[in-house]
Amino acid sequence: MTSTQNIRRLRAAIPVHHRSEKASAYLVASAVVVGALAAMAMVNRHLAKNAERDNPASGRFLDVDGVRLHYVERGSGEPLVLLHGNGSMIGDFESSGLIDLASKNYRVIVFDRPGFGHSDRPRGVVWTPDAQADLIRHALARLNVSNATVLGHSWGASVAVALALKYPDLTRGLVLASGYYYPTARPDVVAMGAPALPVIGDILSHTLSPLISRAIWPLMLAKIFGPRSVPEKFGAFPKEMALRPSQIRASAAESALMTPDAIKFRNRYADLKMPVVIIAGEEDRLIDIDTQSARLHSDISQSRFHRVAGNGHMIQQTATDQVMSAIREVASSASKLEAAE
Fold first, then answer.
1. How many angstroms separate the CA atoms of 189 and 38, rounded?
2. Which homologous superfamily does the CATH classification assign to the domain defined by 55-340?
3. Of 47, 148, 159, 168, which one is least surrounded by beta carbons within 10 A?
């Protein structure tokens, strides 16, 4: 007797009502799961709409390369461009006070990068630092900016580097804050990138991920702000905007790109010839500054490196004056170079 015949005999020996009960149990369980996911998706959609209603765009919009890009512009003088980190938005620089501080002497332009805040993130593009550098360059051209000091924080530092490498004439000087520049083993990044996966990522980002993010929000803040406590001014940051499914998916995509982009750029930093100031919190719990910022300093001969004692990853929030000093330092160096030419 063949194995197929044996299987058929065994199945025939199981009473029909037992098989139907098992099938019914599977159907009920499936219906419960689908119903729970649908309910979570509806709740998250409702919360996202409320977040956008309660936090309307504070700036203006540009339609650039098929992207509706939100930006804030304030002050006058030499242009200064601010690029936020992963999972963040203009509200980070706004709540930190850096925009108000810098706008006293500079024409400050701050973008919601694609997928964050009020900016779109079209699906047909892989939003690498290079792709975002092209977008920022075209947006600045629309704003009649041909030469600017650029500050990038965290993932925004990668975009700033890409902009300077591709368009050195546009980039007057660089301030690179709390950046990730060289590939390392990051198992946490693999987990964080799950909501960016095809199909399953959409399901996660619309159902479980926002709820999990809300639950672990205090732990995330403790990690990125530590060893400092979260400053009171960060209360103005629009947390609910960061927990929308669309922004969680954008953040996951950027997490997944971290290491590949570091591999791409790791041997190109010496090509940066403009003034560069690197600044990082001495006790950053997210990124090892010795293997990242300190190493970058050694690869860029004209760079200066400032370690901010007693601070972590969010130095734009907890060491705002030191970040402002780094901006002035770069701008001053750029002016001296221009005067010497």
1. 27
2. Alpha/Beta hydrolase fold, catalytic domain (3.40.50.1820)
3. 168
